[in-house]
Write a structure and sequence with these properties.
The complex is a heterotetramer, with two copies of chain A and two copies of chain B. By secondary structure, chain A is mostly helical. Chain A is 68% helix and 2% strand. In chain A, helix 4 packs antiparallel against helix 7 and helix 6 runs parallel beside helix 8. By secondary structure, chain B is mainly alpha-helical. Chain B contains eleven helices and no strands. In chain B, helix 2 runs antiparallel to helix 6, helix 5 crosses helix 7 and helix 6 runs parallel beside helix 9. The longest helix of chain B is centred in the first third of the chain and has 29 residues. The radius of gyration of chain B is 18 Å and the shape is globular. The two termini of chain B are 30 Å apart. The chains are: A mainly alpha, B mainly alpha. At the A-B interface, helix 3, helix 4, helix 12 and helix 13 of A face helix 1, helix 2, helix 3, helix 6 and helix 7 of B.
Chain lengths: 311, 249, 249, 311
C-alpha cells in the first residue's frame, strides 16, 4: 500500500513510469491489454487498406497508400516493443490475437468497398484514432508515451492524405462524389463507435484515468471528433448521415445521434461484416509463415554454433 | 526515339509489375518485419516506375504520362520481363524472384548511371541506392532460408528451380537493345550477365542451394508477349482507370 | 416498376454471381465428373441470368439489356445475396454454398411459377427443372461427403459453419419484397423458410452434420451492400467490357 | 502369327475390333497411348479456355464457352472409358499424366492471351483436331471409333462457334481486329504442328496405318488443314503469318512454310510457355481433390456395408 501510494504520487506529479520500476500488477496488465490491442489494430488495419493497394488508381495514390500501410506495420512494431518492456513477448500477444482472446479495433471489421473508403479510413478512422491517441502522448508509462509521440506525428499525416483523397473524390465526377458520400455514410457511425460506449457504461475508466493510461472520457473525445469533422464534411460538400446533427450554441459544439450500440456489441461478438475474413487472413499469414520463421531461427542457431566453434 | 521509348517502358514496366506483385503481400507476410520490408520495396519500385514511365511518356511526346502508360495499356503493350509477372507463390518464391531480379537490377542501374542520357543517369543513381539495399536484404534472406531448416531449404530450392527458366530473359538482347547500347544510352543485357552470375553463385553457395543446370530461357515479355498471369494482374491493377475513364483521382 | 426491376435484379444478380463463382472451377475440380457437373451448373445459372436480367432491362425501359446490367454496373448496384459472392474455398465450401442455395432456390422458383406476372412464371418454370437437378445433386454430395471419411466430414462441417451466417439473408424480406408479394409477383422471403429448414434438416441429418445453433444473419447484399470479395470478382468479370466499351463481342 | 494374320485380315476387311477380342499386345499398347493422350488433351485443354471463362465479355459468349468446356470434359470421359476397355484404369492414366510419363497435345502449352485467342482456339485448334479426328471415326478399334463419331459432331460445332467469335473480332473495332490478327499470328504455326512432324520422320506411322489406328499421313492432313483455313482467313480479312504462302495450281493446294520444328521439340521437352503452369494446375486439382475422392469412396463402402447388414 505504501508502494502504491508512492506510485500514484509519481503519476500525479506527471512523472513517467519506466519498465524496470515497480508498478502494480493491475497497472501492468491493463497496459499490456491496451498496448497489445492497439498493436493488433495496426496489424489488422493493414487488411482493409491492403484490399485497395492493388487497385489504386494512380501511381501516386498507390505510393501514398503503400507508405501508409508501411507506417502502420511500423506502429505495430513500436507498440509490440513497448508491450515487451512489460514482460510479454510479441509471439504471446500474436497468439492471443489469433485465438481470439485479445481484440483489435472493431472498425477494421468493416469492409472497404470503394476507393473512397480509403479516403474515409484516412479521414475518419485515422482522425478518430488521433483524437484518442494525442492525449496518450502524455500517458504515465514511458515507452507507451514515447511510441505515441512518434505514431501521432505519422497519423496526422495520414489523416491529411485521407482527407485529400476524399476531396479529390468529392469534387470529381458524379460517380466519384457518390462514392465519397457513400463512404461517409458507412464509416460515420463506426468511427463514432471507436471512442467506445459512453463512460457511464465503462467499468475500467476510473482506475485507468487515475493511472493516466486514459486521459479523457470517451464522450469528451467523441464530441471533439464530431466538432472537428462536421466542418470538414461541409467543406467537402458531403452530408453527415445524421438528421439530428445540429449546432448547440450553449455547449459550443454539435449535438449528434448516438451510434447504434447494439451493432457495436454485435461486431465485438464476432458478427461484423469482416470479422471472420480478417481473422482468417491473419491466421493464414501466420500459418503459411511458420516455415519461414523456423528457417530463420534454425539459421540463427547454426550461425551461433559456428561462431562458437570458430572461437 | 521509339527505341528509347521501348527501352524506358522495359525498365518502368518491370518495376511496375514487380512492385504490384510485391504489394499483393500487404498484410499477409510471415512476420511483421517482412510486412514492412515488402511495403517499402514496393514503394521504391513504384517510385522508380513513376520516373521511368514519366520519362517514357515525355520521350514519346504524345501526351501520355506515367499513369496513362501504367493504367491504360493492355498486356501486349507492356514490356516487362516475364520473371516479374510470375505469381507470388509462397514467400520463398516471392523472395527468390526478388533475389534473382535484384542481382540483375543493381548492375543494370550501375551501368545506367553512365548513360549518355543525363535524365536516365539521374534516375539510375537515385534508384541504385534503393536497389543496393534490396539486394542486400534479399541475398541475406536467401542465405538464411537456404541454410535454415530442411523445409526452408527445400522450399527455396523449389523456388529457384521453378523460376530459373525466367531468369535468362534478363540477359537476352534484341535489336532495340543493340541500338540503345550503340548510342551509349543503355547497356546490352548480355554485358550484365557476368556480375549476375558471380552474385548468384556466391549467394547460392552460402545458401547451400544448387544452381540449376538448364540454360533454357523463356522469353517474350520484353517484346510484349506475356504469360496468362499478366492479363489477370491487369484486371485488378487497371480496374478503376478502366471503369471510370473520366475521373481524376 | 422500380420494385419489379429491383426484384428481378436480385434474382438475376444472384444467379450471375453464383454462376461466375462456379465457373471459376473450370478445369480444377477434384474429379472429371465434377468438372462436367460444375460447368453444367454454371451454364444453367448463366442462362437463367440472361432471362432474369433481360426481363429486368425490359421492365426498366432505359435500353439496358442483360449484358449492360451484368457488365456495366459497379458493386453497389448489384443486388445478389451475400452467400453467392463468398469465395469458392475448397470444394467442400463450394458444394455447401451450392446446397444451401439450391435448397432455397428451388422453393423460390416453385413459388415464382405462380407469379401474377406471366413472364416471371415462364422463366421460373424453365429454371425450376434445372434447379431441381442441382438440388438433387448437391444434397446427394453433401450426404456422401458428410458421412464419408473423418476428413471429409470435418471439411463439410467447417464449410457449413463458415457459411451459415450467410444463409439467413435469403429469408429476410424488406419493403420491396413486401410490395412485390402484395402484388402477387414474388413470394415473401420469409415464406420460403419452412421448406428450406425441412430440406436442410433432412440432408444434414443423413450427412451426420450438425446444424449450427446461431441465427445471426449477415445482410446487405440485396440492398447493394456487399463484401470486399465482390469488387474483386467484378474486376475480372467486367474487364473486357470496361476496357473496350465500344466493342461488340 | 496365325492369329496376327487373321487380326490383320479383319482390319483390312474394315471390321471393328472389340475389347474382348484378341488383339496384339502392341496394338493394345499403341491404342492406350493414343487414346490416353487424347483424353489427357481434353482435360488439359480446359485450362487455356477456362482462363477466359471468368472474363467472357457477354453472357452469351460465356454460356457458349462454358458449354464447350463442358463438352471437352465429356470427351475426356468417353475417351477414358474407351481406354478402360483396353484394361487400363482412369486413375492409372491420370497418374501417368501427372508424373509426366504420358503427354497431352502440345498446343495446350501455349497461352490464351486475349479474348481473340478463344476464337483462334476454336477455329484453328479445334479445326486441326477435327481434321485429325474425322478419319479416326473409321478407326479399327470399335470403342475408339464410336467415341470419335460422337466427339467429331461436337467439335465441328465448337469450330463454327470459334470462327464466329473470330468474325466478331475481325469485323469489330481496330483493337479487336488487332487482337484477332495477333491471335492468328500466334496460333498458326502451333496449329500446323498439331499434325506432328512430317511422316518421313515418324517411326510409328507405318504400323499404325496398317492397323488403321492412323488413317492419313501427317502431311496429308496438314495440307488439307491449310487448304481449308486459308480461304477462311481471307474471308475474315486476316493475314496468315507466312510470306511463302502461295497457291499451287499443280497440286491444287497451297504451298506453305513448315513450322519451326525445333520449337515443337522444345515444347515437347517441357519448355513451352505454359507446360509448368498446366501441369501444376492439374497436379493441384488432383492433390486438393484427394479428400473428396476418398470421402466418396468411404461413403460407398459404408453404404454397401449397411445394405449387407440390412439383408
Amino acid at each position: 500500500p505504501e508502494l502504491l501510494a508512492a506510485f500514484q504520487a509519481r503519476i500525479d506529479a506527471g512523472e513517467k513510469i519506466e519498465p524496470k520500476e515497480w508498478m502494480p500488477e493491475a497497472y501492468r496488465k491493463t497496459l499490456i491489454r491496451q498496448i497489445g490491442q492497439h498493436a493488433h489494430s495496426e496489424i489488422v488495419g493493414q487488411l482493409p487498406e491492403g484490399n485497395w493497394i492493388t487497385r489504386a488508381p494512380t501511381l501516386e495514390r498507390k505510393a501514398i497508400l503503400l507508405a501508409k500501410v508501411q507506417d502502420e506495420a511500423g506502429h505495430g512494431l513500436y507498440l509490440y516493443c513497448a508491450a515487451e518492456t512489460l514482460g510479454v513477448s510479441r509471439d504471446d500477444l500474436t497468439e492471443q490475437l489469433l485465438n481470439g482472446r485479445m481484440k483489435y479495433s472493431s472498425i477494421f471489421n468493416y469492409p472497404t468497398l470503394t476507393w473512397a473508403d480509403i479516403g474515409a479510413v484516412g479521414w475518419l478512422v485515422d482522425g478518430a484514432a488521433i483524437m484518442n491517441q494525442v492525449p496518450l502522448q502524455r500517458t504515465s508509462f514511458g515507452p507507451y508515451s514515447r511510441a505515441m509521440i512518434r505514431i501521432c506525428k505519422e497519423e496526422s499525416f495520414h489523416q491529411r492524405q485521407g482527407y485529400d483523397l476524399m476531396r479529390a473524390m468529392a469534387t470529381g465526377t458524379a460517380e466519384q462524389k457518390a462514392m465519397a458520400q457513400d463512404a461517409l455514410n458507412r464509416f460515420w457511425y463506426p468511427a463514432l463507435m471507436m471512442f467506445g460506449p459512453s463512460d457511464k457504461e465503462s467499468i475500467h475508466s476510473t482506475q485507468s484515468m487515475a493511472w493516466r493510461i486514459k486521459i479523457n472520457t470517451n464522450d469528451e473525445l467523441r464530441q471533439k471528433f464530431v466538432d472537428q469533422t462536421v466542418p470538414q464534411a461541409q467543406y467537402l460538400g458531403l452530408t453527415i448521415p445524421d438528421e439530428n446533427l445540429v449546432w448547440n450554441d450553449e455547449k459550443g459544439g454539435w449535438d449528434f445521434s448516438e451510434p447504434d450500440w447494439s451493432e457495436f456489441y454485435e461486431v465485438l461478438k464476432g458478427n461484423g461484416p469482416c470479422n471472420t475474413d480478417r481473422m482468417e487472413a491473419r491466421q493464414k499469414a501466420w500459418r503459411d509463415g511458420e516455415w519461414f520463421r523456423e528457417g530463420l531461427m534454425a539459421h540463427a542457431r547454426k550461425s551461433a554454433a559456428r561462431r562458437v566453434a570458430a572461437e | 526515339e521509339h527505341d528509347l521509348f521501348t527501352g524506358l517502358t522495359r525498365l518502368g514496366d518491370t518495376t511496375l509489375i514487380l512492385g504490384h506483385r510485391v504489394s499483393e503481400w500487404c498484410g499477409h507476410a510471415p512476420i511483421l518485419e517482412e510486412d514492412i520490408a515488402l511495403a517499402n520495396m514496393a514503394l521504391d519500385l513504384i517510385g522508380q516506375t513513376q520516373l521511368w514511365l514519366g520519362l517514357a511518356g515525355e520521350v514519346e511526346g504524345r501526351g501520355r504520362d506515367a499513369d496513362a502508360l501504367a493504367f491504360r495499356r493492355d498486356a501486349w503493350d507492356f514490356h516487362n520481363l516475364l520473371l516479374v509477372e510470375r505469381p507470388n507463390g509462397d514467400f520463398g518464391v516471392t523472395l527468390m524472384r526478388q533475389f534473382l531480379f535484384d542481382a540483375y537490377h543493381l548492375p543494370l542501374l550501375k551501368a545506367l548511371e553512365g548513360s549518355t542520357d543525363a535524365r536516365i543517369a539521374a534516375i539510375a543513381q537515385k534508384a541504385g541506392k534503393e536497389v543496393a539495399y534490396h539486394l542486400e536484404r534479399s541475398a541475406d534472406l536467401v542465405i538464411r532460408l537456404g541454410d535454415g531448416t530442411e523445409e526452408s531449404h527445400r522450399r527455396m530450392q523449389g523456388a529457384l528451380d521453378a523460376l530459373w527458366g525466367y531468369a535468362g530473359e534478363m540477359f537476352l538482347g534484341d535489336a532495340v537493345d543493340e541500338r540503345l547500347a550503340a548510342a551509349g544510352i543503355m547497356p546490352t543485357p548480355e554485358s550484365l550477365r557476368a556480375e549476375w552470375d558471380r552474385t548468384i553463385d556466391t549467394v547460392l553457395g552460402e545458401a547451400t542451394l544448387v544452381r540449376p543446370a538448364s540454360d533454357f530461357a523463356h522469353k517474350g515479355g520484353k517484346q510484349g508477349r506475356h504469360s496468362e498471369h499478366m492479363g489477370h494482374l491487369l484486371t485488378t491493377m487497371q480496374w478503376l482507370q478502366r471503369a471510370y475513364p473520366d475521373a481524376k483521382w
